[in-house]
Hints:
Elements: H1 2-43, H2 47-61, H3 64-76, H4 82-95, H5 97-109, H6 112-129, H7 134-166, H8 177-191, H9 194-207, H10 212-225, H11 227-233, H12 239-261, H13 263-273, H14 279-298, H15 302-309, H16 332-357, H17 363-367, H18 372-377, H19 385-406, H20 412-437, H21 439-446, H22 451-477, H23 483-510, H24 515-543, H25 546-555
Helix pairs in contact: 1-2, 1-7, 2-4, 3-4, 3-12, 4-12, 4-14, 4-15, 5-9, 5-14, 6-7, 7-9, 8-10, 9-10, 10-12, 10-14, 11-12, 16-19, 16-20, 16-22, 16-24, 19-20, 20-24, 21-24, 22-23, 22-24, 23-24
Amino acid sequence: MDILNSVFKLAAGIGLFLFAMYLIEEALKNLSGRNFKIFLQRIAKNNIGAVSGGAIVTAVLQSSSMVTLMVVAFVGAGVFTMKNAFAIILGANLGTTIASWLVATVGFEMNIEVISYPAVFVGGLLLIVFNKRKSIKYLSYFLLGFGLLFIGLSFMKTSMEAQVSAFDFSKYIGFSPLFFLVIGFLITLLVQSSSVTMALTLSALHVGVIDFNAAAAIVLGSETGTTIKILITALGGTASKKRVVLGNLFFNIFLTVLAFVFLKPILLLITDVFNIDNPLIGLVTFSSLINLIAIIIFLPFLDPFAKFLEKFYTDIDASVCAFITNANIDEPETALDLFRKDTEYFIHNSMSFNLTLFGVDTELLDSDSKFAPINLKRKFFSKTDEEKYLYLKHMQGELQAFYLSLRSKLDGDHEAELNQLISAVRSSMHSVKSITDIESNILNLQRSSKDIKYEFFLHNKKETEELYHKLSLLLTKEKNASFGKLHNIFDDIQNNYSATLNNFYKKAQNDPIEDLDFTTVINFNRELFTSNKAMVMAVKDFMLEEKQAEQFNEKVIYKT
C-alpha cells in the first residue's frame, strides 16, 4: 500500500507541475503576450538579436514549445524568414533552462513550502474575489502556478525518497546511457514538457535513484521528445511551416546525437574543470551548456541550413488559391477566367465554413461541389475552424494582390468584371467575419437549457441552411443568375430578421429571460443578418452583369 501511495503521489506531483506550468504560461501570455510578439518581431532583424530575443522571451514565458509554435505561426504569415525562425528557436532552447536553474536551486536547497503555500493562498483568494478583473485574474494564475509548481516538485521529491527505501535501484545504475536517453525521450513524449522531465530527473538524482551520467542522458532524450507536439501542429500546414518544424526536429536530433557522442568529455568538463560537485547544479549546467554549444555551432550555418530545408516539401504549393497560381497576367483574359474560378472557390468555402460554425453537416454541399477534389488535396475538411478561417484570410490576400497586378492589363469591360469579382471576395469574407464574431453566441444558444433561446437558434440555423442551399444552387445550376431570384432571397433575409426578433420578443413576455440573454440574442441576430446579406451580395457580384448588379444595389434597402 505504501508503494502504491508513493506512485500515486508521484503522478499527482507530475499533474500539479504540469498544471502549474500551464497557469504560469497563461498568466504571462495574457498579461504580456502582445508585447512579447512585438518584441520578437523587432529584435529578430539579425541572428544575435533573434537568439537573444528567443532566450529572453522563453526565460519569462518558460515554454520553449509555446515560443516555437509562435515562431512557426509567424513564418506561416510571412513575418519571419526561416533563418529568423531558427535563430529564435536556438535562443528559446537556451531560455527554457532557466526554469531548471530555479528548480535545482530554490526547489531543493530551500524549504519550498514556506514559499509555495502563501503563494497558493494569495492566488486563490485573489482569483475568487477579483476574478472579473483581467489583470488580477492572471496575476492570481501566476501566484497559483508558482506555488503549485513547488508543491508538485515536493510531491515528486518525497515520492522518489519513498521509492528508494522500497526498491534497490543499484542494479539499474550499470545500464547503458542509451537506455536512459530513450527513457528521457519517452517521458517527454508522454508529458510533452521537458521542464517536467528535468524536474523528475532532478528529484531522482537528488535521492540517489540515478547517478549524474544517467541523469544527463535522460535530459538529452528530452531535447528531442519535446518536438513531437510541434510536429503534430504542422500537419496540414503550409510548406514553410513544415520546413521550420522539420528543421527544428533535425536540430534537436543533431544536438542529441552530438552531445551523446561527447557525453563523457562534457561531464568531465563540468565536474573536473568547472569543479561543480553538486550533481543538481551540474545537471542544469549540462543542460544550459549543450544548448549554448548548439548556438555556437549552428549560428554561422543558418543561411545554408535554411536553403537546405527549401528542398523539402517542394510539391506543396505555398499558395492557397487553386487556379491563379497557374495564371500569367501577360495573358489577361485567361488570367481573368482563372480569377473567376478562384472567386467561386472562395465563395463556396466561405459558405461551407459558415455552415460548419452553425453545426450544419456540409457533406452534401462539399461532396457535390466541383471543388471537392481540391479541398481534399489541400486537407481543408480536416482543418480546425481557426485554421479554415486563416486559410480563407490567406486566400483573400492572394486574390487581392493578384487583382492589383491584373487590373492594369484589362480593358474597360473586363476591368469592370474584375472589380465585381474582387467585390464578391470582399463581401464573402465580410460574411465569414460576421459569423466568426458570433461564434461564442452560437455556442451559447446551441447549448442553452432555455427552450426560448434554443428554439431561436434552431430557427436561424434552419433559415441559414436553406439560404445557402438556394445560393449554392444558383452558383452550380445557373449560368446566368436570375435578378428576381436574388432579389427575393434578399427580401426573405430582411423579413426573417425582423420577424424572428419580434417573435422572440413576444415569447420573452411569457418566458422572462435575463438581460444578458437579450444582449446575446440581439447581437447574434444582427451579425447573422449582416453575414447573410453579405453572402447574397457576393453571389450577386459574381453572377450578375455589371448593369444588373448596379440595379440590384439600388433596389435593396439595408436595415439594421
